[in-house]
């Protein structure tokens, strides 16, 4: 009986050790799997953040291009002798309307509503091509590829608010001129990625221009 019980004990120990090793191995496999899943999630989040940042940068560059395009528009665009260019004449407020003009030469030209009223850039639908905004290049002839690959989903747009018109009787040496507020929106590769920028631009009379 002792020999038999001894043999029984010698056979039962390896079985208990084998079971413990299996549990340890399973725990290690679970831990390695958890680490792998965490690493994969971190890599995906980093890739998503990089993609979103690239999209934002594309929208930012498009908005900056729209600001520059609006400045060229104010300075006469593709035809300094056009009816559109005449609306930016020094001392003139013609063509600038409440709610921004929506068609023809008045497109995107907004009057400053003054105190107590929301400015045009807060009420205008900048992201809509059907709204009273100006598409990039509409009055300057500039072009911007869009709608494919790593390009903006659509061309940027802008509006121009007349902020200040100088009074009469200025001295010749005064560097006065109309002051405009430009609000531009740029789009990323995805249309819902949008960046809005603003700038103030003073157009000097020709005699005072540097």
From TrEMBL:
Domain called Type 4 fimbrial biogenesis protein PilX N-terminal: residue spans: 19-68
Ranges for domain PilX/PilW C-terminal: 107-203
A Pfam family this chain is assigned to: PilX_N
Chain ranges passing through the membrane: 21-44
Protein name: Pilus assembly protein
UniProt keyword annotations, A-Z: Membrane, Transmembrane, Transmembrane helix
Keyword check for Transmembrane: yes
């Amino acid at each position: 009986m002792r020999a038999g019980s001894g043999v029984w004990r010698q056979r039962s120990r390896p079985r208990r050790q084998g079971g413990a090793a299996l549990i340890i191995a399973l725990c290690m496999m679970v831990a390695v799997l958890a680490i792998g899943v965490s690493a994969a999630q971190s890599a995906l989040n980093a890739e998503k953040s990089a993609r979103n940042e690239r999209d934002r940068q594309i929208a930012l560059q498009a908005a900056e291009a729209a600001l520059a395009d609006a400045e060229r528009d104010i300075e006469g665009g593709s035809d300094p002798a056009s009816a559109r260019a005449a609306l930016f004449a020094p001392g003139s407020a013609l063509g600038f309307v409440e709610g921004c003009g929506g068609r023809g030469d008045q497109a995107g030209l907004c009057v400053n509503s003054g105190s107590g009223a929301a400015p045009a850039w807060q009420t205008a639908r900048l992201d809509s091509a059907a709204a009273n905004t100006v598409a990039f290049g509409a009055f300057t002839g500039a072009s911007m590829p869009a709608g494919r690959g790593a390009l903006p989903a659509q061309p940027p747009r802008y509006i121009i608010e007349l902020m200040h018109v100088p009074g009469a009787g200025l001295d010749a040496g005064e560097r006065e001129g109309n002051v405009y507020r430009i609000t531009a929106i740029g789009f990323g590769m995805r249309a819902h990625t949008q960046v809005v920028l603003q700038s103030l631009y003073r157009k000097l009379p020709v005699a005072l221009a540097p």
